[in-house]
Amino acid sequence: MKNLLPLVALLFVFASCGSAKKTSATRTLSKADRIVNQAEAFTGTPYAWGGTTRKGMDCSGLIYVAFEKENIALPRVSRDMATRGKSVKKSAIAKGDLVFFKTDKNSRKINHVGLVTEVTGGVIYFIHATSSRGVLTSRLDEKYWQNAYSQTRRLL
User: Fold this and answer.
1) Is 12 domain-assigned?
2) Suppose 114 and one of 11, 71, 128, 143 were both cysteines; which one would form an S-S bond, judging by CB atoms 3.0 to 4.6 Å apart?
3) Which of 101, 110, 112, 148 is catalytic?
4) What is the CATH number of the domain that holds 39?
5) CA distance 145 to 139
6) Whether residue 59 lies in the annotated active site
7) What are the pLDDT digits (tens) for 84-127?
8) Is 128 a residue of the active site?
9) Which of 95, 100, 101, 128 is catalytic?
10) Is 62 a catalytic residue?
């Protein structure tokens, strides 16, 4: 009987481990989710012209690095990025799309890019690097960004 008790206890432990319910399913992230996560990891990084690190980042550097982590090669400059992928209507913008802007009033060239992080209830959020506040998330319906908006491109 003494030898039987440890054996029963051992069987109980192994049986209970195998019958535990799994409460959360493993979820595989989409490529767009992974790229957005890469970009969001730089939130709060200060602005640095030509920067591609946590020490400093510019808008195209942020996009370049986020896509590079998924082995998607992009040009390094926003106006050149705007020639890639396919054009998307504003009404069809989705997570992972690139939004392009013309922020210089003296030039009609694209000079800014952001990555769409979320579209909720018709509101489009995008992450980008600004010269005044570094890497942050903004809304496309903010007056400044509405006025500067140029186009959207889908690479995924």
Assistant:
1) no
2) 128
3) 112
4) 3.90.1720.10
5) 8
6) yes
7) 999 999 999 999 999 999 999 888 899 999 999 999 999 999 99
8) yes
9) 128
10) no
